[in-house]
Design goal:
Length: 430
């Protein structure tokens, strides 16, 4: 039997024997890096090397690691109790967090249903929409509409509204429900696209429970940005047809695009909004689906007598306490200046990539920087080049991108940009 803790060599050997990493085969095609510690915006690897985290641990750790305010909240809550079931019980961290989310959310989204994760949050939103329509006697409204290029998670309902052709869930065609898709939303306003989008929703309205989109930024489906005015088109046509509008703000919420929620770029509010990822500052998993009093009342008056969902770890007190501490930092408002500064620095720092023959486009919005390549990235070559610059990024498909913690300084962002450009250059030579 192995001695524990394992040394680095034994750790990686055990990882290779037993651990199946995300979005890949077994064994892993690329070598994982063993993290020993994290603080601020840096990982420390076994052996002592440091890497600047340009990914915010998949867009969640917006305040960095070991933030003293979040650490204190975690210690205080775990000293009281780390978890109790939420069926028939309640507790201060969940109630206070729900109240604060309701106050921050756009529109009249003041009813909060907690979930385990972003994907589960989308499942909850879909169930809300379908139960709402059923409670109104619209039993034929069971499908969803969205646009191509999206990504909403890895469980079955979210998979059904991920991009049906270019997305990684294309293999599940015939297993997940067939949904209604518009074309990818253009970056700029296009009157013809807007008219076609509205017509599509109207034409299918008798079978649609909801439209679900990522507002302004499409995340893991391709890191594309679109004109916020398309959200106003969706709001209008959903109002006209009785179809609900769901915004998936799991990636964009809490300041990532330069507004607290991406919906604010369009000045509209959805009927249901999903949040997660940065909700707890990246400390632990938690999601929330917010909706209106009208929707909650209609569902509760329906045949099930309420929403038919209840995760074991719903409203986990430890997660809710840390989320409340994260909102303390968000509500202080410093993120607005931080994100604006990062946006400016990303524009300048990623500019050299535009000169590379392998690069199709460079785009920046808020604390998001994207280098789109003309072909799929060589993961190992790009990762080696990026880490050689002292940076951690995780390219996918034909994208090298960054969504750094808001607390990154100018030198950190400059290093992240050098790493991203180095990864693009490695793609040229690989």
């Amino acid at each position: 039997m192995a001695d524990y803790p394992l040394g680095t060599t034994d750790l990686l050997a055990a990882d290779a024997r037993h651990v199946w990493h995300p979005y890949g085969g077994f064994p892993a095609a690329t070598r994982p890096l063993p993290v020993a510690a994290a603080s601020g915006v840096r990982f420390t690897l076994d052996g002592g090397a440091e890497l600047i985290d340009g990914m915010s641990s998949w867009w969640a750790a917006i305040h960095g690691y070991r933030h003293p305010h979040l650490d204190a909240a975690a210690h205080a809550q775990i000293d009281a109790f780390s978890h109790v079931m939420f069926g028939g019980l309640t507790h201060r961290p969940a109630v206070e967090l729900a109240e604060r989310l309701a106050a921050l959310a756009p529109g009249e989204l003041d009813k909060v249903f907690f979930a385990d994760s972003g994907s589960v949050c989308v499942e909850v939103a879909v169930k809300m929409a379908i139960q709402y329509q059923r409670s109104l006697g619209r039993t034929g409204r069971t499908r969803l509409a969205t646009w191509r290029g999206g990504y909403h998670g890895d469980t079955l309902s979210p998979m059904s509204v991920c991009d049906p052709e270019g997305g990684m869930h294309a293999m599940w065609r015939g297993v997940v429900q067939s949904q209604v898709f518009a074309g990818e939303p253009p970056a700029q306003w296009d009157e013809g696209y807007a008219a076609g989008l509205a017509e599509l929703v109207c034409r299918h309205s008798d079978e649609l429970a909801a439209v679900i989109v990522e507002p302004v930024v499409q995340g893991a489906g391709g890191m594309r940005f679109h004109d916020p005015a398309y959200l106003r088109v969706l709001r209008r046509v959903c109002d006209e047809t009785g179809v609900l509008l769901i915004f998936d703000e799991i990636a964009t919420g809490f300041g990532r695009t330069g507004e607290l929620f991406a919906a604010e770029h369009a000045g509209v509010a959805p009927d249901i909004m999903c949040v997660g990822k940065a909700l707890t500052g990246g400390y632990v998993t938690l999601g929330a689906a917010l909706t209106t009093a009208r929707i909650a009342e209609v569902i509760s008056a329906g045949e099930a007598g309420g929403l038919a969902h209840g995760p074991t770890f719903m409203a986990n007190p430890l997660a809710c306490a840390i989320a409340g501490a994260s909102l303390d930092i968000v509500e202080a408002g410093k993120w607005r200046t931080q994100v604006a500064d990062i946006e400016s620095q990303l524009h300048d720092g990623l500019a050299p990539a535009r000169e590379l023959s392998s690069v199709a486009e460079v785009r920046v919005l808020g604390a998001i920087g994207v280098i789109e390549l003309v072909s799929d990235v060589d993961m190992q070559a790009a990762t080696d080049a990026i880490t050689a610059e002292g940076v951690w990024l995780r390219p996918f498909r034909n994208l090298i991108y960054t969504m750094p913690p808001y607390v990154c300084g100018a030198e950190d962002i400059a290093a992240i940009c050098r790493g991203a450009v180095a990864g693009a250059r490695a793609h040229v030579s690989s």
